[in-house]
Amino acid sequence: MKRLALIFLLAISAAFGCDAQSFSLYEAIPLDDGDTLYVAPSLPPAYCYPPLRFRNRKAEKFYWRTVRDVKKCLPYAKVVGKTLNQADVDLARLKTEKERKAYLDKLEKEIKRKYEPVLWDMSYSQGKMLIKLINRETNFTSYELLRVYRGKVNAMFWQGVARIFRANLKDEYDGSDKDRITERVINLVEAGQL
């Protein structure tokens, strides 16, 4: 089998005018002293989970709804994590409280302009998933983030609104126990296997 693959690669390289010297599975990195370092390409992790056996139709619907929700919400949770990291760096550089407040107001307006239409299109279950994924990405609950960046009164108000709709901004992500199916889906989506 290896011999057949080698013959195939040589035939392809001959067909496209490549010589054997220029064809390599390794990436060449030139060094300062004129030498060259060959590095093998890194491959993304591949996850191998046992096949799922659903107890009933309801469990199967739950799984596929989780897949749908993770695929929609995970990119936005990652954006929240990156934005918070960048905001923390920027806020640390600002000297006065007035500059920090102006920065946060500008950032809030930009985020609302960019992401508010997307958030209004999310379903109830996707909103709950986003709350958990934000906790997974930032290690802070949505309530804690609101309290830090918008104040305690604002955080309590939005927690009250969330509770009216049977959601909770204080929900925490637990990938090893109650959210293990979600963690499995996240791993498979990030690896491109789902």
Strand order of the largest sheet: 1-2
Please give the count of helices: 7
Tell me the total number of β-strands. 2
**How would a textbook summarize the main sheet?**
2 strands, antiparallel
Dominant shape: flat
Fraction of helical residues: 55-70%
Q: What is the gyration radius calculated from CA atoms?
A: 24 Å
Question: Which features would summarize this protein structure in a list?
Answer:
single chain; 194 residues; mainly alpha; 63% helix; flat
Summarize the structure.
The chain is mainly alpha-helical and 194 residues long.
Describe this structure in words.
With 194 residues, the protein is mainly alpha-helical. 63% of the residues lie in helices and 4% in strands. The chain contains 7 helices and 2 strands; from the N terminus they run H-E-E-H-H-H-H-H-H. It has helices at 2-15, 57-93, 97-120, 124-138, 142-150, 152-164, 180-190, and strands spanning 27-30, 36-39. The chain has a two-stranded antiparallel ribbon with strand order 1-2. Helix 2 crosses helix 4 and helix 2 (57-93) packs across helix 7.
